[in-house]
Amino acid sequence: MFKFYVALWASKLMMGFYYLRKKPKTDMPGLLACKICPDFLKIIAKPKLTIAVTGTNGKTTTSALVNDFLRSSGMTTSFNDWGANLMAGFATNLIRGVSLFNKPKVDCSVLEADELSMDTEMVKIKPDYILVTNICKDSLRRNGHPENIFNHIEHCFRLLGDKTTAVLNANDPISCELDRDGRRVFYSMTDARTYPLENISKDITVCPRCGGRIVYDYRQYRHIGRFKCERCDFRTPHAEYPAEFVDLDSRTMMINGHEYPLISDTIFNAFNVLSAVALLRELGYREPEISSFMATQKVTDIRESSVEYNGIEYFAYAAKSQNVSAASTVFEYMAKEPSDKDVVLLMDEVQDKNHPTETLSWLYETDYEFLNSPHIKKIIVGGHMYLNHKLRLLLAGVPEEKIVAVEEEADIPQYVDQYGITKVYVLYEIDYVTKAKNMRDSIVAYAKGGK
Ligand SMILES: [Zn+2]
Fold this sequence. Notes:
Elements: H1 2-20, H2 28-36, H3 40-43, E1 49-54, H4 59-72, E2 77-79, H5 87-96, E3 108-112, H6 118-125, E4 129-132, H7 140-143, H8 146-160, E5 165-169, E6 183-189, E7 214-221, E8 224-229, E9 241-247, E10 252-255, E11 258-261, H9 267-282, H10 287-294, E12 307-309, E13 312-319, H11 324-336, E14 341-346, H12 361-365, E15 376-381, H13 386-395, E16 403-405, E17 423-429, H14 433-447
Parallel strand pairs: 1-3, 1-4, 2-3, 4-5, 5-6, 6-9, 13-17, 14-15, 14-17, 15-16
Antiparallel strand pairs: 7-8, 9-10, 10-11, 12-13
Helix pairs in contact: 1-2, 2-5, 4-9, 6-8
The chain binds zinc ion.
């Protein structure tokens, strides 16, 4: 226990230091605590309610919805809202929630959790609820195959047993098989008529129980939809929280006969709202309360961050390189978005610049084929991966005359069209917002003649 208190006090001191420097969004205090006391996550006191949110896509938005709702309803919470979703982030979150004498001082901790940390770190925290958004193809280098991700989360549920309730996506044939012997509740969604394109790389193709073919009544996106196995009784499970009606254009959804506003017009955020509603209803909150909270929430609209000049709208649009499902989704949006446009690809794995060689496989699982669209007039690729992107685009059937590949990103603006298009999208690595906005602004400046 001596080690634990040294760890707690040292990390509290460090946290105070970061607050004084106005940099509270760091996981350094948690890292220090776990270095001093390896059992820190196990020993630190937990509030009376702990909630973990994990899954490939959507966990940041969903955990923020859950946390902000609880706060708005009068609960005190601790939350790792600065993107630190591993051991050090969990520790920092929990340190915020206890006194110097390890007594809980918040009502609830909401933990956004990386999938691979579930059976090593989250299992020490023993959350009351684990919400899983989905399991999709992610970075091969970091996460391996979806089955590997599934195994880590499943292992966590097995270690936790009945202590934890699983809140699961009935439309995901991968994550709906989690925790089959445990306490679980499901959310599901009717056909939202999103008409998804076919992906070249499937997240799941055969039934996890018998190896039979999985067929769909409808899909919402990728492998998410109402499915069944052709050979056995594996099918979309019955859901306690079904969205019976979804209208993305008017941004509303009916769940068990109650109407909820959506936070954006995308199917992904409809699922994020749905999963948050399922969890909050499980916690006993009433529909009108949740519904009026959702009406106050809004995902930042990409149009708000666009710049217009001379009849062309310029966007900076986040994508995630290496995350096959997320990148493909953005490319699908580019294909379906009907205006004539240029696309600038800045997905050059800046963070991996020093060891980029082993990460190429994601390019070949991502649907570059979607970019072979008549609406896309030109694709400009920059950064140290530029030739890899060009090769992949050629293999996807994009005519060579539509591709401009430049190594120096500073050269990009001069190749962006100024006529014959109405939109320009700069697709950038999600962690590099400023860099992307600077690129968009230099493209606009070049168009204005200022260079
Ligand atoms: Zn089967």
